Amino acid sequence: MRSSDWTHSTETTAAVPQPVHELRRFGDVVDELLDELVELEQHAHEASDHYDTGPWQRENFVRDLPGKRELSLVATVSGTPAGFLIASRRPDGAHLHRVATDPRHRRTGVASGLVAAFLARTPGVVTLVCDPANRPALALYTRAGFRVTGTTPEGKLSLATGTTPHR
Hints:
- By secondary structure, this protein is an alpha+beta fold.
- About 30% of the residues lie in helices and about 25% in strands.
- Strands 1-2-3-4-5-7-6 form a 7-stranded mixed sheet.
- The longest helix is centred in the first third of the chain and has 22 residues.
């Protein structure tokens, strides 16, 4: 998907130039951008009060999961990662493991563009788990069509699109 296929408005004034996001498949760029993705994850974790207990490490990015290389996406600006979405295939759809935006690119449509593009190309039920205190993430997922389906033993919210998945 080229950047021309993904346009998104932002809340800033028209006088300020907006970055052009290019959406790329994770499997096509992971080898080239792995160090930058790990660094982005670290910065996203440091900038958030509710972004999991610890940042993902290199091994999380390279761990093989069903469909991960094809389903997962990376948003880049001038070849540099601005955000990513990591997902894997499930029998009834997919599971979103991680969505992160570089703090310098927050509120520019990176996360919503990643989620929208992912949902547009992923059939079936999509699930995810989110900290209930992470209001920006919950607002993003709600706008994208997710709804709360339960709570994990750790107190996080389970969300899904479409029909509630079988447990």
